[in-house]
């Protein structure tokens, strides 16, 4: 196995990128923190360690810094992008969530991960995704630890639902395989969907077996760089019902509506907004996507 030099880089200030908020706002499933708040994870087949120190964010990696600058979307001004005209509640969400950035994730990983996310909680999603990678991905050695890349669609397309039984992903297993087959067969070109419109990209994703509105919007937002995507889950649905007009439409928030969605999601979930106390206690154990 090739050994590449590991370098440490400063990414940005912690005001520009809050790693806890960004990794814990439901958009990704392969980053985990230790007791010191240091995150380790894998993206685009490269492992890394990310942490805060003295108001700065650092990364140790054997991949080029340019890859991570793009992954964390650090070339854009999020304060400027966060000027929404959505009322007092959204203003509160933006202030609370400032530091969240939309990760530019690998399109296939985003599609497969959010298929897995259906009717699931984050802890379980992470477990299924990690098992999938350990079984079918390539081994990565980083800082003396073993990690695994996300398996390519060519690897999964030849499998049967029985092959995925160790994941315990239930009814989602055939959807994973069908999505992989669609990519391998050329029925859908995820990279091409980055360059088309948000509407066209979502329409193409909705043609896949097992992909509905929520999953499609997650994929266009987190994997295809269309920031108009506005996934609506139980947290967003509750927030919209309680704090927005009945005729609210996400498109009124403009081209960065997906960023507003992340602020709303993070605020509502972290504050258990509108959730009865009994339910709050249950959701401390597993936070739903």
Molecular structure report:
The protein is α+β, with helices and mostly antiparallel strands. 43% of the residues lie in helices and 13% in strands. It is built from 14 helices and 7 strands. The protein has helices spanning 19-23, 65-71, 78-81, 88-97, 107-116, 122-136, 153-157, 172-184, 190-195, 198-206, 213-222, 234-243, 257-270, 277-283; strands at residues 7-13, 31-33, 39-43, 46-53, 56-61, 139-142, 145-148. The strands form 2 sheets. A 5-stranded antiparallel beta sheet has the order 1-5-4-3-2. The chain has a two-stranded antiparallel ribbon with strand order 6-7. Helix 5 (107-116) packs antiparallel against helix 8. The longest helix is centred in the middle third of the chain and has 15 residues, at 122-136. It is globular.
Could you give the topology of this structure?
Elements: E1 7-13, H1 19-23, E2 31-33, E3 39-43, E4 46-53, E5 56-61, H2 65-71, H3 78-81, H4 88-97, H5 107-116, H6 122-136, E6 139-142, E7 145-148, H7 153-157, H8 172-184, H9 190-195, H10 198-206, H11 213-222, H12 234-243, H13 257-270, H14 277-283
Antiparallel strand pairs: 1-5, 2-3, 3-4, 4-5, 6-7
Helix pairs in contact: 4-13, 5-8, 5-11, 10-11
Head-to-tail CA distance between termini: 37 Å
Class per helix and strand makeup: alpha+beta
Order of helices and strands: EHEEEEHHHHHEEHHHHHHHH
Rg (C-alpha, Å): 19 Å
Biggest pleated-sheet summary: 5 strands, antiparallel
